[in-house]
Amino acid sequence: MNKAQLVEAIADKLGGRQQAADAVDAVLDAIVRATVSGDRVSVTGFGSFEKVERPARYARNPQTGERVRVKKTSVPRFRAGQGFKDLVSGSKKLPKAGEVSVKKAPKGSLSGGVTAKATTKKAAAKKTTAKKAVTKAAAAKKTTAAKTTAKKTTAAKATTAKKAAAKKTTAKKATAKKTAPAKKAPAKSAARKTATKRAAKR
């Protein structure tokens, strides 16, 4: 059975060939897109489609027998459900024409499945956001601590420089005080000598 025959087989149930063709296209497109994105498409009673990573390996060229290196790739995989397997093996009888061979999904399970997936994705997004926030806060704390340390170091250096300058100024003043009397002393001795000479002349 090809795609056209599949459309013809379900056209009566869907009310026309065009509606059946649109339905088949929509289902196949949804399965392909979900599988390519890495999601597992599971249909109860029928089977599941999933994306599988195939590692790099060596294979043999069937024509030449030469050993060839095969690159790592991704391949789609279909696994038949237990209901499908039982019908094919004959352990269960196929329903009469007009009845659905694949189990129908219970009421609310379709919307529930979508909601569960959406909730899981939202929870994962929230966890990621929380981790980013914690990382940013830690980085901000480290930066603030570094800035504070730098400010303290700069303040300590400035205080040390001021103290050193004050010590130098004090030392200069002390030196100036010690030097001043030494200069005055020769002046006094000169005055005394002059007075002595004048007294001797008289």
Characterise the protein shown here.
With 202 residues, the protein is an alpha+beta fold. It is built from four helices and five strands, in the order ααβββββαα. The strands form two sheets. It has a three-stranded antiparallel β-sheet. The protein has a two-stranded antiparallel sheet with strand order 3-4. Helix 1 (3-14) crosses helix 2.
List the topology elements.
Blueprint: H1 3-14, H2 17-36, E1 41-43, E2 47-54, E3 57-60, E4 67-70, E5 73-80, H3 82-89, H4 109-201
Antiparallel strand pairs: 1-2, 2-5, 3-4
Helix pairs in contact: 1-2
Keywords:
alpha+beta; 5 strands; 66% helix; 202 residues; 4 helices; two-stranded antiparallel sheet; three-stranded antiparallel β-sheet
Low-confidence spans: 112-120, 180-185
End-to-end distance: 156 Å
Shape: rod-shaped
Computed CA radius of gyration, to the nearest angstrom: 48 Å
- What is the H/E order? HHEEEEEHH
Major beta sheet summary: 3 strands, antiparallel
Overall helicity: 55-70%
What is the β-strand count?
Answer: 5
Strand order, main sheet: write it out.
Answer: 1-2-5
Strand content: 5-15%
- How many helical elements? 4
Q: Helices and strands: which structural class?
A: alpha+beta
Mean pLDDT: 75
